[in-house]
């Protein structure tokens, strides 16, 4: 029992949050999959129909068919999601070579700049408690730690779950709980490379359910960024799911994630915060065709992860918010993960920063009222704008899959999909006459519209203006993905001393990162 004199203020505080729980201060959950393709869900046509929870989530909410990531690779896509800005602005790109995808492997020196505003920082100021579960990928050095960039809690890792490493040439990737590391992948958190068995999805799901329960009890608004990675290579699933899918190990991972989504939505219902929680499910980039039969499906779309064809950036997206988003809706809104920034802030009634360009747009009218807003989608690879979509038209200013040298080594981002003069193995400059596709009647970007046609001229007239405006107003940020150094790897993560788990680090030896594609 509380001392008597505290009763009144406590009730007042509860009263405040109670009323906010009824409308003005919604909770947010972003479920961001890793390398999951547009075609991986039953509701998007995957024929095995192994995602009943996600299919049901879509039936209870809104399916967004034309929703994109801001980049075809993990780190830049995630930086764009949290900053609402294209990687070329927020610094998640490289100038070491033209149009190269860069990310944050553990030798990266850079990360998310302090000058960037992440929307969780603004939610936090407004009283939200924010948790990230899973993969951060915005830099692993101490200054880039998520608890220094708007999050109150973290359970997960700064990098991909590659490994195991020998802790001499390369350290294993640390897993953090809060500020401190609590162990490392392959040592304390197992991923069996032969069988694909790992309990990580179970652990990440329990973390989410516990957080929801705690927040529901405290009646304080929350943002949960559930950034789990079972569908990123090496793909994994726990024992009960192994061997259960018609699609092999990748399908086992998807089935476990689907089950986890069901558990999280159930937790919201159990704790009676479902009507006050907007949940958005999506993926950070397209399915990795390079992973062959252990990669996702991009449905009818061309190529996959790493490319600026539709398969690289169109994402399986569902928005769910009982009593706010009407059930069984399909939205053709051109959406972007960057839209989360203005949309969530608008729903939380927080003013947008005015001192910088924000590339995302406020989609609350789309979600709540089915409104369609006209806007372009820009497809970047590193420092180059490769393509633009406006309405049903997509113009490629540059095409590239991956180089011939890599192709000879079996690396193919467009496996089994050779479209002459489109899936080019050289970086081809089409700026003087962009390749134009109608992505409604030609989903697979196979049939370029003739540059001699009236249709081409009328579409390109509009697109050229949008591109001119975009480029005129673009001030590239300081590139964060240029420098690498084996000395900065995860040798001594915060908290390693307490565990006696620090590793000897080699001396610093910075070099320009080599980005092959
Ligand atoms: C997963 O958890 C189960 C039950 O606790 C345990 O038996 C199994 O060894 C764990 N698997 C891995 C790969 O850690
Ligand atoms: C491909 O492009 C080359 C060079 O521009 C051109 O000569 C060739 O005719 C094109 N092939 C097809 C099938 O369009
Ligand atoms: C691409 O082509 C355009 C138009 O021909 C040209 O202005 C530009 O310099 C070219 N870019 C590169 C990097 O070659
Ligand atoms: Ca990814």
TrEMBL record:
**Record lineage:** Eukaryota, Metazoa, Spiralia, Lophotrochozoa, Brachiopoda
Q: Which residues carry this modification: 3-oxoalanine (Cys)?
A: 74
Summarize subunit and interaction data from the UniProt record for this chain. Answer: Homodimer.
Provide the primary localization: other
Q: What is this protein called?
A: N-acetylgalactosamine-6-sulfatase
Q: Where in the cell is it found?
A: Lysosome
Disulfide bond keyword on record: yes
Cofactor(s) required, per the database record: Ca(2+)
What PANTHER family does its record include?
Answer: ARYLSULFATASE FAMILY MEMBER, N-ACETYLGALACTOSAMINE-6-SULFATASE
UniProt-annotated binding residues for Ca(2+): 34-35, 74, 284-285
| Domain of life, source organism | Eukaryota
Q: Boundaries of each Sulfatase N-terminal domain copy?
A: 26-350
The UniProt family comment states:
Belongs to the sulfatase family.
């Amino acid at each position: 029992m509380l001392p008597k004199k505290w009763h009144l203020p406590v009730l007042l505080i509860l009263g405040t949050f109670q009323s906010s729980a009824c409308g003005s201060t919604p909770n947010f959950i972003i479920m961001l999959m890793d390398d999951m393709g547009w075609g991986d869900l039953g509701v998007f046509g995957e024929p095995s129909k192994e995602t009943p929870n996600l299919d049901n989530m879509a039936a209870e909410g809104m399916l967004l068919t034309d929703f994109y990531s801001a980049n075809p690779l993990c780190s830049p896509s995630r930086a764009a999601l949290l900053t609402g800005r294209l990687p070329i602005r927020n610094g998640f790109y490289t100038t070491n070579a033209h149009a190269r995808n860069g990310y944050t492997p553990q030798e990266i020196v850079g990360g998310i700049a302090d000058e960037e505003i992440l929307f969780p920082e603004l939610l936090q100021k407004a009283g939200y408690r924010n948790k990230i579960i899973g993969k951060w990928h915005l830099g692993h050095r101490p200054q880039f730690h998520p608890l220094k960039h708007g999050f109150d809690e973290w359970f997960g890792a700064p990098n991909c779950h590659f490994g195991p490493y020998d802790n001499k040439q390369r350290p294993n990737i640390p897993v953090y709980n809060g500020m401190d590391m609590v162990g490392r992948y392959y040592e304390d958190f197992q991923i069996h490379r032969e069988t694909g068995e790992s309990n990580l999805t179970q652990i990440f799901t329990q973390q989410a359910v516990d957080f929801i329960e705690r927040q529901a009890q405290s009646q304080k608004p929350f943002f949960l960024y559930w950034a789990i990675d079972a569908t990123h290579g090496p793909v994994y699933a726990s024992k009960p799911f192994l061997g259960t899918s018609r699609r092999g190990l990748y399908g086992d991972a998807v089935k476990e994630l689907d089950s986890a989504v069901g558990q999280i939505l159930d937790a919201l219902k159990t704790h009676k915060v479902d009507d006050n929680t907007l949940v958005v499910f999506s993926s950070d980039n397209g399915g990795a065709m390079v992973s062959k039969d252990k990669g996702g499906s991009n449905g009818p779309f061309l190529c996959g992860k790493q490319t600026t064809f539709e398969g690289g950036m169109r994402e399986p997206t569902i928005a769910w918010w009982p009593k706010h988003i009407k059930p069984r809706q399909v939205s053709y809104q051109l959406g972007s993960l960057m839209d989360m920034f203005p949309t969530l802030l608008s729903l939380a009634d927080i003013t947008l920063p005015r001192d910088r360009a924000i590339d995302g747009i406020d989609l609350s009218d789309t979600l709540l009222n089915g409104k369609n807003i006209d806007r372009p989608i820009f497809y970047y690879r590193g420092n180059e704008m490769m393509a633009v979509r406006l309405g049903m038209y997509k113009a490629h200013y540059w095409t590239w899959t991956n180089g011939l040298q890599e192709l000879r080594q079996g690396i193919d981002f467009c496996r089994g999909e050779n479209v002459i003069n489109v899936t080019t193995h050289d970086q081809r400059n089409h700026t003087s006459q962009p390749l134009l596709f109608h992505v409604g009647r030609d989903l697979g970007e196979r049939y370029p519209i003739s540059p001699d046609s009236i249709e081409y001229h009328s579409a390109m007239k509009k697109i050229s203006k949008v591109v001119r405006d975009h480029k005129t107003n673009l001030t590239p940020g300081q590139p964060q993905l240029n420098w690498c150094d084996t000395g900065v790897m995860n040798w001594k993560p915060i908290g390693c001393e307490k565990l006696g788990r620090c590793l000897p680090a080699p001396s610093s030896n910075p070099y320009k990162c080599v980005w092959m594609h």
